[in-house]
Amino acid sequence: MSTSTIHDIGYRHYDGRRNGRAYVLRSLYVHSLRAAFGLGRPARAKVMPFILAAIMMLPAAGSVAVFAVTKEEDVLMRYSSYAPTLQVIIAIFLATQAPVLASRELRFHVVPLYFSRPVGHLDFVLAKIAAMTSALFALIAVPVTVLYVGGLVTKVPHSADQLGRYLAALVGCALFALVLAAIGMVVAAFTPRRGFGVAAVIAVFMLSSTLVLVVQGIAESETNFTLSGWAGLFAPFNLVDTVQVRLLNAEKSSVQVAPGLKGGVVALAMCAAIVFGSVAVLYRRFRKAGLS
């Protein structure tokens, strides 16, 4: 008869402090936020996000520099128009970084490992969306802050009114970040290959904007400006801009926005529906991946 031997290879039971679910959730959020800017990853992963962040800063810095020389208030960009004006750069940032947060774990089939720890499927989704939202908010809000601070330093006229506009613009920045992150994360989560994910996110924003512009052009050629405004709600940047214009008293940056207070309320409701709907879709997506 053969004999068996038990070898003691040094494994010991962990008796230390267990930080629990909140710590895991916070760690996942911080890790994902760092990953969005390539921090903690190879140098090549940092190139694109930091180049795009620098490009986002250039109009703000240039605008303040020109105003410092000319003292013409018109050269300063409006806070609320910053995101719509630079929407191409924001969309590229989202397209390149959303797959890093949403599809990398799916591609390498490591999602079940996350759920072996005290973190739920909803916690995982919320941490990911919060990280992408924070990254986009920083991308948009930092240049807007540079505009505000630069205007104060160079003594822009009516500086007492600037604080209210700046705070309203920050609300708009947060809404832009939340809506865009929700859309980008859903698209990226269903395209596990990163290259396809980048192309898919870009395609969603390009197609929606192009179709809306076509419909608005036809509506305006028929002098139906009301229809043109409502059509704008189906392009993400126009949708959030409508909220800024109708509910935050900003000047419009889109071709047309939905009319009146009703337009603002409908636009805000659509933003909420996009965010909650995206959370539900991502929950089902990662829950299915966690069970496989």
Structural class: mainly alpha
Sketch the topology as an H/E string, one letter per element: HHHHHHHHHHHH
Number of domains: 1
**Count of beta strands:** 0
Topology:
Blueprint (H helix, E strand, L loop, with lengths): L19 H17 L6 H28 L11 H4 L1 H16 L1 H4 L3 H4 L6 H33 L5 H31 L4 H28 L3 H7 L4 H12 L12 H32 L1
Helix pairs in contact: 1-4, 1-7, 2-4, 2-7, 4-7, 4-8, 4-9, 7-8, 7-12, 8-9, 8-11, 8-12, 9-10, 11-12
Structure description:
- Keywords: Membrane, Transmembrane, Transmembrane helix.
- This is ABC transporter permease.
- The chain crosses the membrane at residues 50-70, 82-103, 124-146, 166-190, 197-219, 263-283.
- The chain is mainly α.
- It has helices spanning 20-36, 43-70, 82-85, 87-102, 104-107, 111-114, 121-153, 159-189, 194-221, 225-231, 236-247, 260-291.
- The protein has twelve helices and no strands.
- It is globular and about 90 Å long.
- Helices cover 74% and strands 0% of the residues.
- 37% of the residues are buried.
- Helix 8 (159-189) runs parallel beside helix 12.
- The chain has one domain (20-291).
Characteristics:
74% helix, 12 helices
Structure summary:
With 292 residues, the protein is mostly helical. It is built from 12 helices and no strands. It has one domain (20-291).
